[in-house]
Design brief:
The protein has about 130 residues and is mainly α. It is built from six helices and no strands.
Amino acid sequence: MAYNDKTTHPALTDEIVDFYNLLYPNTPITAEQKELLIEGSTLLDKLFKGDCVIAVAAAKKDASLCQSALYQEDLINLCFYQISLMSGDKSLCSEIKDEKLSAHCLAEPPAPKDESKPRLSPIEKIKNFLHANY
């Protein structure tokens, strides 16, 4: 069977914790910690899928990918934001459901005509925005 984002990574994490506990019985990972690790592995899969879709959508400047391939509102919002940054299309800002991110999108200056000037990448801008606002 192929990789399944809902079962494969959690099952591997479960087995890895069991193996760790077998090797290190004096410092075992508790059942509660194991559940947190399994949950984290599932969340990582969702995050990486979102990053990939957002990168492709931004590179193609194709906003239809945001809603057709992503299922979490926060990832959809980031997708529209990044495409707006890459394309300069401010109309995409109105598609963003998060009010702070939408306002930030609208306030973002247009891309400089002179590409020799240093500019933060869209991912760096998103990270800075999230760090400052959440």
